[in-house]
Amino acid sequence: MDVARSEVFEAGTPTACRSCQARHGVVCGALSNAQLKELNRHSLRRKVDAGSEIIAQGSESSFYSNITRGVIKLCKMMPDGRQQIVGLQFAPDFVGRPFVRESTLSAEAATDAEICVFPRNLLDRMIAETPELQRSLHDQALNELDAAREWMLTLGRRTAEEKVASLLHLIATHAEPQTAISTAFDLPLSRAEIADFLGLTIETVSRQMTRLRKRGVILIENSRHIVVPDMDELQKISA
Amino acid sequence: MDVARSEVFEAGTPTACRSCQARHGVVCGALSNAQLKELNRHSLRRKVDAGSEIIAQGSESSFYSNITRGVIKLCKMMPDGRQQIVGLQFAPDFVGRPFVRESTLSAEAATDAEICVFPRNLLDRMIAETPELQRSLHDQALNELDAAREWMLTLGRRTAEEKVASLLHLIATHAEPQTAISTAFDLPLSRAEIADFLGLTIETVSRQMTRLRKRGVILIENSRHIVVPDMDELQKISA
DNA sequence: CGCGGACTTGAGCCTGTTCAAAAGTCGTGG
DNA sequence: CCACGACTTTTGAACAGGCTCAAGTCCGCG
Hints:
The structure is a homodimer.
Chain A: H1 2-8, H2 15-18, H3 33-41, E1 44-48, E2 53-55, E3 63-69, E4 71-77, E5 83-90, E6 94-95, E7 106-109, E8 113-119, H4 120-129, H5 131-157, H6 160-175, E9 183-186, H7 191-198, H8 202-214, E10 219-221, E11 225-228, H9 231-238
Antiparallel strand pairs in A: 1-8, 2-7, 3-6, 3-8, 4-5, 4-7, 9-11, 10-11
Helix pairs in contact in A: 4-5, 6-8, 6-9, 7-8
Chain B binds a DNA duplex through helix 8.
GO molecular function (chains A, B): DNA binding; DNA-binding transcription factor activity
InterPro entries (chains A, B): cNMP-bd_dom, cNMP-bd_dom_sf, Env_Response_Regulators, HTH_CRP, RmlC-like_jellyroll, Tscrpt_reg_HTH_Crp-type_CS, WH-like_DNA-bd_sf, WH_DNA-bd_sf
Pfam family, one (chains A, B): HTH_Crp_2
């Protein structure tokens, strides 16, 4: 239906894209209307429940996606079951690994989410034809690289308390449009996932959270909903 | 002199580049002869002693470089002095952060090294004009991202012993063309630098190295020169 | 209301740190 | 050629931050 309508406006934006979170994101923001239309014709919107896997570690993936709602976590798993989250992605990020088919990590919905899925071949062709798109994806890759390296510092050199404070700060600044000083948000991650992100155990994460609560740095409601009265204080504790 | 000679062959490879380690690397391998010539005309070969800084964290850098010899370490430093190495780069890697002028990390020679330095403006222009170059740099960025995430797993989830074994394995496979099974190489890093890479202390690194030595997994000569009789064994210990 | 999963709390332990000293290593100069 | 001094590395002993194991509590949901 949406596709049929967009056929009418040869050069117009597909209706499905008009109100899309990712319309001006890394991929779609770099496309011409004609390209957007073609991509849309081969795209599929998909709802994914929290916890369900989008890409499996070690598998060959023949598609890419844009996140249009929710949070996606990127995980690495060791054969013995130890796990590390190596990245979080929010709408309207692009998910996928250009140039290499086999994935060295898994992508999993952290919250209920919505993604727009399209074939690898098609986007690969567009990348080759569209310097602007290549540039845009290159830019996202470099930003993710900066984020990964920042996180390496956290994993290697910060204490448990600093780690937890860092994560809360990260999520507060990414997930919610914070007000001037105070911020409130829902954690997209369970305690177990936070632990896997920070290289800690569930118990340590829990203890550090209650320590922060008792110090008045955060308020915890429902264990998922967090209020930060003073973001500067939180950042100071993150070191 | 080299420049003068290369002027003669309008379309030829500059002589300075003919025997260069980086000639077919990420940047120069993607350039036309004319571009290579232009880049060469504005390039400067520079020797850097081990320990000297190439780019300072927080500074604005107006140049990029190619590594033509040696090993460069990328570091992040906290205000209180804690430090984390977030990447190692070997010849013929490209060093620099396209699109962003201010560096969030410092680049420092780990060994005596040689780099080929060229102006940021010039390469930025070439990137914009040369899809192949953009693609090549994009590719390096994605490879570095994979490496960074692999290292996040190491930092977050591996034990001290596994960390040390992982680093030895990494260096063995990058620095030296290993023989079938056994490998010998010089460590480009001091114990302190290894500790900063692995998120450990000097003492723990030293203890784990002697443990590996006593188990016969490695031989240590001069504390910098390492022999690995069986790489598979080392990899197994890295988990 | 009772069940199940997620989260919190507690006690003891262990890995890796801290602090301290000894042993190499290397360059310099007598 | 060896002695000296600075620095890196190794080794030792005590400590502590975070882990493990084990209950207990909270909360959503049928």
